[in-house]
Design brief:
By secondary structure, the chain is an alpha/beta fold. It is about 40% helix and about 15% strand. The protein is globular. The N terminus is likely disordered.
């Protein structure tokens, strides 16, 4: 299996310049180490009515600063909506977002407590770290791929759609991938198996999600493992065709994103950790209400336009919505299946007892205040 990174830099940069002329402006992203400041109060017209206010509890005073590491993917919607609607402020939290390019880059920041919370996907590196020391907790769902919520997919370059029609046609192709051993890596393996292929039959190219569309445009890669909003953005730019959704080939509902807390956060600021979950789950439910029931949809879309790379509100109505558990529970079956595949591939050695890592006390606290759905 070939893995490629450095030779793509010039091609991706050139394509990015071309795409910039026709793409919506990039979302304002804070560089690692520099936090984005949340609004002082909910903006007029925010979707506050989408989710009922929790049982009255005085906000923490003084407000507690919480840094959250995110990729600015659509699955980060719960955090963005909570920020824009003031849900975190109502809990006495001053939440800042730190933007990262790839999931593996986030792991050290949360493991060492440099950030208090993070959106993440489970990887062999995470399993390896947790087999040695439980220095973070998996506390909530942050995106599941299910039927009707196909927000993760393989995208094929537009000029290759006549050549790549079946899974076996992926043989020898250059596939843009956000890191070996990521959850999407496991899903790609299952897709290749449907064509009688293995990971050694393709050429994996390490790319951050925002770099995949320029790489497709420059023909540096043939296929990409994409998440929303990049799928819809690429289709709108006529760069890529959505080919196969993860829900079509994974074999079970897939836990793609998880919300994690650093051990330092839960031990040193336990009340802030509980309060963060209330704000986050309100944001998740506002997203579900908007896209499944039409409640305050325009206000929710405005929050996503502000915080993700897609700046055209109309495109959000074309996207496959993210699947979220309205009570914040992670799909343990999916985590276990991916851990077993990682062990079979030799990507990590020691089995992790996920019952000691998945900590439901925070979603239990939030649902006690908000009510269960």
């Amino acid at each position: 299996m070939a893995r490629t990174r450095s030779w793509l830099a010039a091609a991706v940069l050139a394509a990015a310049i071309v795409l910039a002329a026709c793409a919506p402006a990039a979302a304002p992203a804070a560089a690692p180490g520099k936090a984005a400041t949340p609004p002082a109060a909910p903006p007029a017209g925010a979707a506050a009515s989408a989710v009922a206010a929790p049982a009255a509890d005085a906000p923490l005073n003084p407000p507690v600063a919480v840094s959250v590491a995110l990729l600015r993917a659509l699955s980060d919607a719960g955090v963005f909506i909570a920020l824009e609607n003031g849900y975190f402020q109502e809990e006495g939290l001053a939440v800042d977002v730190i933007t990262f390019g790839l999931p593996p880059d986030i792991l050290p920041a949360v493991m060492t407590g440099q950030v208090q919370a993070s959106g993440l996907s489970h990887t062999p590196a995470m399993f390896n770290a947790l087999s040695r020391e439980v220095n973070m907790r998996i506390v909530a769902d942050k995106g599941q791929v299910t039927q009707g919520h196909g927000w993760a997919a393989l995208g094929v370059r537009k000029d290759l759609t006549d050549e790549i029609k079946d899974y076996k046609d992926l043989k020898g192709r250059r596939i843009g991938m956000g890191g070996e051993g990521s959850v999407i890596y496991f899903q790609l393996i299952r897709a290749l198996e449907k064509g009688g292929l293995t990971i050694d039959d393709v050429d994996l190219v390490d790319l951050a999600f925002p770099d995949m569309l320029p790489a497709l445009h420059s023909r540096a890669i043939d296929v990409a493992t994409l998440l929303e909003p990049f799928i819809t953005l690429g289709v709108a730019q006529d760069v890529v065709a959505r080919w196969k959704g993860v829900e079509e080939f994974n074999g079970f509902d897939a836990q793609n994103g998880i919300l994690v807390y650093s051990e330092k956060f839960v031990t040193e600021q336990p009340e802030a950790a509980r309060r963060f979950m209330v704000g986050y789950l309100r944001g998740v439910r506002a997203y579900l209400d908007a896209f499944e029931r039409g409640v305050d949809r325009n206000a929710v879309i405005a929050a996503l336009v502000k915080n993700t790379p897609v700046k055209d509100p109309a495109l959000y109505l074309k996207m496959a919505p993210v699947g979220f558990d309205p009570n914040g529970r992670v799909n343990r079956r999916s985590l276990e299946a991916d851990q077993e595949l990682s062990l079979q591939l030799g990507l990590h050695k020691d089995h992790v007892d996920l019952s000691k890592v998945v900590d439901n006390q925070y979603v239990d606290y939030a649902t006690a205040r908000l009510g269960r759905r």
